[in-house]
Amino acid sequence: MSSIPVEFDPDHITSLSNPDAQMYRAELSSKDPMQSVLKDNPEIYFVPPKRRSEWGEWEFKPGSYYDTTIGSKHPYWKNEDLPKATKDIKRLRFDMLKWGYCKIDSALSDRQVANIRQRVLDQAEGERLAGIAQKTPSGQNINCCVNKGQCFEGLIEQHPSVVQGGALVEQLVTEALGANWICTSLIASISLQGGVPQALHQDQDLALDSRSPLTINILTPITDMDETNGGTLVIPGSHLVLSAAVRNQSPVGKLPPAINIDAKAGTMIITDGRLLHGTGINHTTLPRIVMLNGMQHPLIRQQENWMLSVRPAVLRRASPKLLQRMGYQATNAAQTNEGHGFGARGLMEEAAGSTVDFRLAADNGEYQRVGELSPNSTEQELNTSFTLREVVRKARASGQSAPVGIGGAKLNP
Ligand SMILES: O=C(O)CCC(=O)C(=O)O
Ligand SMILES: [Fe+2]
Predict the structure, then answer these.
(1) How far apart, in Å, are the Cα atoms of 293 and each of 10, 156, 333?
(2) How far is the CA of 70 from the centre of ligand 1 (A)?
(3) Which ligand 1 atom lies nearest to the CA of residue 189?
(4) Does 311 map to a domain?
(5) What is the Å distance from ligand 1's center to 34 Cα?
(6) Where are the alpha helices (DSSP H) in 84-195?
(7) Residue 117 CB–ligand 1 contact under 6 Å
(8) 34 domain-assigned
(9) Which atom of ligand 1 is nearest to the CA of 138?
(10) Distance between CA 341 and CA 330 in Å, rounded?
């Protein structure tokens, strides 16, 4: 007979765990504020992405959130004092607090912009030629930019040689997040003709009732952007409306319309993680580039650095459950590896989000990271057996690949 007390028996526990007996059920199962946003604002909806073969063939519904223009041309917004591109720190603070974003005028000089633009365009082409481009519903992303050009190292640290307005950007981010904030990712977001508008979303994925942001995204257009080429869609002020609704447990109600942000290349747009936003539609033939430089509160990460510290032998014998619990299953917003894990949900044994093979390759001294590529890369460079290629191939073979695909083989589930 088992000597384990009956209270520890899984069946016994289940019998005492009906939903109405559980703690914090409402809080944890709540999909708010997005559920309420969608219910109260039918013009905000998810536009399904198109496969490569149907690229551009999506239904534009007039009156939808993406059927809009820049603030100064929008009948609802044109008389409002929306964020202005400026170097005035007082105005920037005002715009952040009131509207949830601010625009730092000429944070990058023309020369700094030109340098990044060339590197992004070359890398995007190189990754397409190498068959490892990350296709997104709106176009293409370049992930893990830090490995793909020295200019990106400087962008992450807002070094004056790459970001002339770096000191001003850092002051504002520090005021928003507190000291010692960290970068969560640096991605180039390229909106291409034919792409669908990104679903409106909040970048902050947790504690959405917070009174100050826990995450910030610094959006840096590297091409001028406006309503014609996919200027980022935002609902000004939504950071306050949405966080108050969650705090008060009340419906979000009718939101004001979205606008396209207009900004010159080199403007840095600091966005509050609670702001509703998404990539706009590019109606032109030229790529629209925005660098997404996410920053977050430094405590949003694990205490022990399992990615590095776990002994290879422990990792090799780890069960799917142990791997998942230590964080080796990425989600869309957490611990993607060179972009692998986008679209995954952090589930145990979910191949689309499994990252342990990167670490095992590193242990064997065989991890081939994607570095700088361009149209001038040699065949040999383009055909490098990048570990990313192998991991993605394995995930696909299991039939579980994520809805957005590296290599472009899959744009839809
Ligand atoms: O591309 C853009 O304009 C915004 C992209 C974005 O918000 C995201 O990917 O989280
Ligand atoms: Fe975003």
Answers:
(1) 44, 7, 13
(2) 17
(3) 1
(4) yes
(5) 17
(6) 89-99, 110-129, 150-156, 166-177
(7) no
(8) no
(9) 1
(10) 5
d(CA 291, CA 56): 23
Ligand 1 in reach of 140 Cβ (< 6 A): no
Residue 344 backbone zone (phi > 0: left; psi -120 to 50: alpha; other: beta): beta
For the beta carbon of residue 381, count every other beta carbon within 10 angstroms.
15
96 C-alpha to center of ligand 1: Å? Answer: 18
Q: Is 278 in the pocket of ligand 1 (CB under 6 A)?
A: yes
- Give dist(CA 53, CA 64) in Å, integer: 25
pLDDT averaged over the chain? 95
Please tell me if the CB atom of residue 189 comes closer than 6 angstroms to any atom of ligand 1: yes
Tell me the two tokens of residue 71. Answer: 């603030």
Q: Is the peptide bond before 137 cis (omega within 30 degrees of 0)?
A: no
330 and 257 co-located in one domain = no
pLDDT at 401: 56
Task: Assess contact for 195 and 139: CB atoms under 8 A.
Answer: yes
250 and 325 share one domain: no
Does residue 337's CB lie within 6 angstroms of at least one atom of ligand 1?
Answer: no
How far is it, in rounded angstroms, from Cα 249 to Cα 210?
Answer: 13
**In angstroms, rounded to a whole number, what is the distance separating the alpha carbons of residues 299 and 182?**
9
Same domain, 184 and 276: yes
> pLDDT band at residue 410, thresholds of 50, 70 and 90?
very low
For the segment 67-125, what is each residue's pLDDT rounded down to a tens digit? 999 999 999 999 999 999 999 999 999 999 999 999 999 999 999 999 999 999 999 99
User: How many domains does one find in the chain?
Assistant: 2
Query: How many residues does the structure list for the chain?
Result: 413
Give the percent of the chain with pLDDT over 70: 96
E-strand ranges in 197-240 read 215-221, 233-234
- Residues 330, 237: one domain? no
The CATH number of whichever domain residue 188 belongs to comes to: 2.60.120.620
Could you give the maximum distance between any two Cα atoms of the chain, in Å? 78
**Nearest CA-CA partner of 371 in 390, 394, 387:** 387
**pTM (whole model) above 0.85:** yes
- Give the distance (Å) from ligand 2 centre to CA of residue 201: 6
Is the CB–ligand 1 distance for residue 293 below 6 Å? no
How far does the chain reach from its first CA to its final CA, in angstroms?
49
